[in-house]
Amino acid sequence: MKDRVIEHIAKAKSTLFSFELLPPLKGQDFSSTANAIDPLMEFKPAFINITYHQEEVVYENLSNGLIKKHTVRKRPGTVGIAAAIKFRYGVNVVPHIICGGFTREETENALIDLQFLGVNDVLAVRGDPQVGMKKFIPEPDGNQHATELVKQINKLNNGLYLDEELLNTRSMNFCIGVAGYPEKHAESPNLDSDIHFLKKKIEAGAHYIVTQMFYDNQKYFDFVDRCRAEGITVPIIPGLKPVTTSEQIVSIPKTFNVDIPAGLVKEMLKCKDNLQVRQLGVEWSIAQAKELMEKGVPVLHFYTMGKSDNIQKIAKAVF
Ligand code: FAD
Predict the structure, then answer these.
(1) Which one of 15, 78, 200, 230 has the fewest CB atoms closer than 10 angstroms to its CB?
(2) Residue 41's pLDDT is what?
(3) Cα dist. 240→6, 18, 121, 288, 300 in Å?
(4) Distance from Cα 10 to the centre of ligand 1, integer Å
(5) Per CATH, which fold does 5-318 belong to?
(6) Which atom number of ligand 1 is nearest to the Cα of residue 145?
(7) Whose C-alpha lies nearest to ligand 1, atom 52?
(8) Where does ligand 1 bind, in terms of residues with CB under 6 Å?
(9) What is the pLDDT of residue 1?
């Protein structure tokens, strides 16, 4: 448990297994999280990621005809659920820390909480624009890009807190992951520009990259080659998200800027219902996973979206 993600990778003799979970919806207890984790524990995950969800703006129609604006966080509790998973399962957890909705002070305090809980891994991401907003807007005195967030965490790893007057500070010990996009980030003008900024995140102190999902392994292999050509040497962990519904033919490219290959679309269209799409997603991911493992990827990281029956079938087939 003392090993962080980067040490797990360094010591591994074969491809590791990991997965990402969402914290439960507000009002739910730990059982939905346990239901997602339990079937996957037999595959000995090297680490489990927990996403962070920023507040959403909600408009309420009042009886006097006016509209009231307020914010809600639908999935709070990332730090707490990460600690609960760590202590219940004895597994490394990687809570996500985002720029959106956080001042630098709040970020520092969340990281202090994590250190007290013995959590030494984080994935540092910017976060998407708030629902209904076209552009990402940081908090006043918040981090604008993931690079700034990585820099802040790295400073804390060197004992440098926001209050420079603090004496005899304790250095933190975070292993920092960042996001990479084989098909480029939606806001990026081109892949070269995106890789240029990805390199800045590594130079700022990130230890490894986890990719956005992809359905064509060649996109991942080409991305890794381009990163290496630009001097990015850290591990690049492929992220896989099996398709589960026919609606994703439209929603995945639109939401994530990720192509669905013609062959997969053709098979999805042949499915009679989403149960069949879910099974197709399992088969497609197994084929992807087998090829990625043959090429020696350090970890296969799965996006569960909170339900793990499909990931269990894939893990059974490949691990
Ligand atoms: P950045 O690295 O800041 O990049 C964002 C864009 O800005 C890119 O186009 C980049 O090329 C550009 N850019 C970067 N630096 C600069 C600069 N200095 N000047 C100009 N342009 C720049 N979202 C959540 O809300 N919660 C999560 O838990 C979460 N987990 C994720 C996990 C993974 C593995 C991935 C791949 C994504 C995750 N996301 C999550 C989504 C992520 O927050 C979005 O994709 C977001 O839009 C970008 O985050 P980033 O960290 O890549 O941002």
Answers:
(1) 230
(2) 98
(3) 20, 10, 20, 8, 7
(4) 26
(5) TIM Barrel (3.20.20)
(6) 3
(7) 179
(8) 51-52, 54, 96, 98, 123, 125-128, 145-147, 179, 185, 187-188, 193-194, 197, 201, 210, 212, 239
(9) 55
Per DSSP, what are the bridge partners of residue 20?
49, 303
Residue 37 Cα to ligand 1 middle (Å): 26
Which two tokens mark 17? 């297994």
Confidence (pLDDT) at 63: 87
**CB-count burial class (<10 Å; 0-12, 13-18, 19+) for 204:** buried
User: What does the alpha-carbon distance between residue 50 and residue 121 come to, in Å, rounded to a whole number?
Assistant: 11
Q: Say how many Å lie between the CA of residue 94 and the centre of ligand 1.
A: 17
Mean pLDDT by 10 residues, the chain (319 residues): 90 98 93 96 98 86 86 88 97 97 97 97 94 88 98 97 93 98 97 98 98 98 98 98 97 97 98 98 98 98 94 98
Distance 199 CA to ligand 1 centre (A): 13
Helices 309-318 and 274-294, packing angle to 10 deg:
30
Q: How large is the C-alpha radius of gyration of the chain?
A: 20
pLDDT of residue 64: 86
